[in-house]
Design goal:
This protein has about 110 residues and is mainly α. The strands form two sheets. Strands 1-2 form a two-stranded antiparallel sheet. A two-stranded antiparallel sheet has the order 3-4. The protein starts with 20 loop residues before the first strand and ends with a helix. The relative contact order is 0.14. The N terminus is likely disordered.
Length: about 110
């Protein structure tokens, strides 16, 4: 596979992938021509664990950890719908977790005020 190279120096040079790729979700081999490139799937557990570890070991790096751009990884185009469903499920888990934390903090305050 060859990718045309542009001569302008304003953008990054294209990456040429040689060899066999594996789907980041299923692990099955895929060809570079048919790979669907997207950010990696991050579970709620991974996000919370990374946040807590970074908070206690290197709090200055929290901004980079939470807001840094992740490199794209290859996925099989056949699992694109499953990937979307899993991302949605992880977002819902995170939302429920954050709402539970908010409830634990707000309910006692409301009981004290009343």
């Amino acid at each position: 596979m060859s990718v045309p190279v542009t001569t302008s120096s304003s953008g990054p040079s294209p990456t040429v992938i040689k060899g066999e790729l594996h789907c980041a979700l299923t692990g099955k081999p895929i060809s570079p021509d048919h790979a669907y490139w997207a950010p990696p799937l991050i579970t709620t557990r991974q996000l919370i664990t990374t946040f807590v570890q970074t908070l206690f070991t290197n709090p200055g790096a929290l901004g980079e950890v939470l807001l840094g751009e992740l490199p794209n990884v290859p996925y099989d185009p056949a699992v694109r719908q499953e990937l979307g469903n899993r991302r949605t499920a992880e977002q819902l888990k995170l939302l429920v977790f954050l709402l539970m934390i908010a409830a634990v903090l707000i309910v006692p305050m409301m009981l004290i005020v009343w």
